[in-house]
Amino acid sequence: MRSEFKYLIFKNTELQTLAIIFPKEMSHKDVARIHRASEGPRLISAGFCMWFAAESRWSAYGKSESLNGMAARPEDVEILTQSFPLHQE
């Protein structure tokens, strides 16, 4: 089974890299606006992600049209894996 989502990667004021995953029906721009309401978090990438349960792995790809083409980066897969360490049971 695989599940598809959208995601954002932020860097907070302590320079920690944080991932947010949300339903693909929501807009990257709307979710980013909610999380940037306070001073501090800086948006560094956006895209689509997929969880492959059978392989216990994430993939990250694509770009956000609502955020002017901000795109997935190769290192986003590792950030997603660290932020959401899902395992097949």
Q: Gist?
A:
The protein has two helices and six strands, in the order ββαββββα. It is α+β, with helices and mostly antiparallel strands and 89 residues long.
Strands, total number: 6
Shape: globular
Low-confidence runs (pLDDT<50, min 5 residues)?
none
Tell me the number of helical segments per DSSP (H or I, 4 or more residues long): 2
Q: DSSP strand (E) fraction? A: 35-45%
> What is Rg?
13 Å
Strand order of the largest sheet: 2-1-3-4
Q: Structural class per helix/strand content?
A: alpha+beta
- How far apart, in Å, are the first and last alpha carbons? 13 Å
Total number of distinct structural domains: 1
Taking the sheet with the most strands, its summary is:
4 strands, antiparallel
Describe the structure.
This protein has helices spanning 28-35, 76-83, and strands at residues 2-11, 17-22, 42-52, 57-61, 63-64, 70-71. By secondary structure, it is α+β, with helices and mostly antiparallel strands. A 4-stranded antiparallel beta sheet has the order 2-1-3-4. Strands 5-6 form a two-stranded antiparallel sheet.
